[in-house]
Amino acid sequence: MTTTSRVRPTTIDELIALEGQELGPTEWHTLSQADINTFADVTGDHQWIHVDEERSAAGPFGTTISHGLLTLSLGPAFMEELMAFDGFAHSLNYGYDKVRFPHPRLVNSKVRMRATITKVTPDGNGSAQIVTTQVFEGEGLPKPVCVAESIGRFTEYGREA
Predict the structure, then answer these.
(1) What's the CA gap between 148 and 153, in Å, rounded?
(2) Is 96 exposed, middle or buried (0-12, 13-18, 19+ CB in 10 A)?
(3) What is the pLDDT of residues 25-52, one digit of tens each?
(4) Rg of the chain taking only CA atoms, in angstroms
(5) Distance between CA atoms of 93 and 40, rounded to whole angstroms?
(6) Which residues lie below 8 Å from residue 114, measured CB to CB, with a gap of 6+?
(7) CB-based contacts of 102: which residues, under 8 Å, 6+ apart?
């Protein structure tokens, strides 16, 4: 089952009810060279295939490509489009498991994300660990540009430690 409207869970039980459900897709996001350059400046990753437009034009993709981690870093903002988190005292990014970049993301391309809540593990104290499979689709591409298993911790109101 796919849900295209933003979901608003407020309890661990409501998160469990979302297990296996696909959320999305989000709106399209366009990648500019300015975005790539800013990310390169923040991370210090100035590899030519990302920032040297002239050299990249003669390279394997005919243009610059995004850093894979730039695409991955859009996950939290895209998740906000798909699911409201204000129903919880807090939700924290716990990390990522398997992350892959099956297809390069070219400059000026569009990407959106679909997410499936794949596992909810309650701790019995009003908190739970949530695994969400995030699939970042490039417009017109045969494969996703990124697939990641995001792990979060959610805590119900009144259960904050």
Answers:
(1) 16
(2) middle
(3) 999 999 999 999 999 999 999 999 999 9
(4) 17
(5) 23
(6) 2, 22, 23, 24, 25, 26, 134, 135, 137
(7) 143, 144, 145, 146, 147
